[in-house]
Each structure stands twice: as structure tokens, then as C-alpha cells.
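Let's see one such:

===
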Amino acid sequence: MNAHERFDYVKKHQLCFRCLSKHLISDCSKAFLKCKFCECNSHNSLIHDAKVSQRKKGNDLESNLEALNPCNDSKGSPPEDVSFFSGNKTPKNNVLLSTAKIRIKNQDGKWIEVISLLDNGSQRNIIRADLAKLLKLKKHAYKANLVGLKNSVVNVNGKVITQISNDEGTFTKNLEFLILPEIAGKTPPEKIDISHLNLPINIKYANSKFYVPQEIPIILGGETFYELFLGNQIRVPGSTVSLIETVFGFVATGCLGDREQTSDDSFCYFVRDSIDDELNQFWRLETIGILPDNDLDEKDLALSHFKNSVTYENGIYSVGLPWKRDYSELSNNLAIARGRPESFNQKIFEKSRTFLRL
């Protein structure tokens, strides 16, 4: 029998897909058994081909996802959002990654200069945990998984929101960053010899030390990647290196040719948003008009009136009546009431003879 026939036989006779015994896989005690082709313990090696052929083939990206995670059996839980994050730690052939010196605002409103990697392969912006702590940024609850090669998982347990800017202050943007304990090693991994390059000297470089190994504590992803580029490009003669203009200055990209490498490591991550975070985003929509809005424009009279007149307590909305606000308070009625009998008694005393005659 071929793999498909064996698979149908196991399914028909309700055998264990792992050890092929007469019980269900949920009752199997031999969790140590793994498929020798994909190292997965959800099926036996004898039915591997049949299991693989059952998977739905998609586009190139989906095929790559299956290759990275060949045995991701579903247990009925809703699918999670997946974001892709990729880059090179020690690029072969000395590929220059786009790095720039940017300014990021800390909790006190001061600007701090850091080196950032501009990566359109990342759908999310990422910040290293030690930098987020140094900036004293408020940490928001957030849970997600970064899944890499061989199903390696890095947990994301928070995010921060802050502002970035260029040196001139002509470009500013509020961004959300996922917090990771580590991002990558230094980029480039070793100092690159650029003495043979005819680089222009009359332009501003986004990172003037792009050829020197530097720590990368921030990654700016695809969310804002294309907003940073202005379109101008300068090709360096005699090489494949190009200088592309961004809001931070010109970044160097391209390949400097084959060289002997001491290492060749790459990293690749996928961001999976947790269901809890999706539900949190949904309930935030339900609290519009209930929770305080920090972005309320004081000049917007309609929103200001709504904020001052509408309250929400114990699941009940209360709307205040449009009372006249610039009224003047009445006089003290109690003092006036007491004064009237005293005044009457005084008049009787003064005109006692007249009253006695009557």
C-alpha cells in the first residue's frame, strides 16, 4: 500500500495516527514517537506523504509558512493574525541594510538619538526591552508570539507608544512598538571596507557610520517604511551600492561583492497576535464616549458639551439638563423672614399709645 492507502486504512479502522495501535491519538501514551521526515509527533512516518498532501496549497508566502511550521495541527481554536518580520544578522556578500540615526521621545518629552533598521519585511515596529526601560515609556499589556525557524518562539509581553522624529523636526510620527528582549547582533557584523567606493561627500547620510558594526535597538517596519523614503536615488559608480534619500538623510543599500565570511546567520520571525488582544481592541471600540479621551480637542464645542453633560455609571447613561449657567443667586430668605416680625413688633412698640386707644 502507498501512503494514501495506509492513511485511509488507519482512518477507517480508527487507529492511532502516531503508533498505529487500536486507540485514538488523544489516548496515545507514546508521545515520544515522531515522524522521521518532519519531526512531528502527530502522525507516523508511514502516513507522512498522505498528511502532507492534504494540506491546502496557497501562494508562495503561505508555502513558506508551511515549510517553517510543517506540523501545526489545529485544535479548533480561532486563527490568529500573523505578521512577518525578517532580516539578516550577518548578510552574505556584505549586503548593506538600511540603517538610520533617528530621534525617539522618552517619557519626559526629551529626544534620544538611536540607530534604527528600516525594514519593509517587518509588518510591526520593534523596540528592544532595555531601550524601552531607558526611555521610561509606559508599558501596555500585549501578548503575541514571534515564531522563527524550527518553531522557535519568542514571547512578546508588552508594547509601548511613542514618537519618532528626524534631526530637523520636519518629520514626526507616533508609532507603536512591540517589546523584545533582543533583536539581533550588530549590523553589519564586521567593519566593511568602503575605501574603494566613490561616495559623495556633499550629502547628508542617515547613518554616517553605516559601515561600522552598531547595535540595532529599534526596527521601523512596513507600517511607516514607505513614508520615510523621498524617492531620490544616487548610484555609486563601479558598484551595486545605491544611496536612497529618506527623511533622515541618505541610506546606503546594495551588495559589496563576495567576501569570506566568519558566519552566515539569518533570522526570521512571525508575529501572532493573541485572541485576548483582538478582544481588547474590540471592547475599546465599545468604550468610545465612556472612557476619557486624551485626544479631545478643547476647541470642539460639541465634544466638550458631550463630555460635560453625558455620564456613564453602572451601565446607565445620564444626560444633564441644559440649565442656565450664568444665573445670580437669590438673597438669604431666612434673614428676610426673621426681619419681618421684628420690624412689626418694633412698629407696635413705637405706636403703642395709638393701639391702646383703639
The first helix runs from residue 3 to 12. The longest strand covers residues 172-180. DSSP finds nine helices and 16 strands in the chain. The two ends are 136 Å apart (CA to CA).
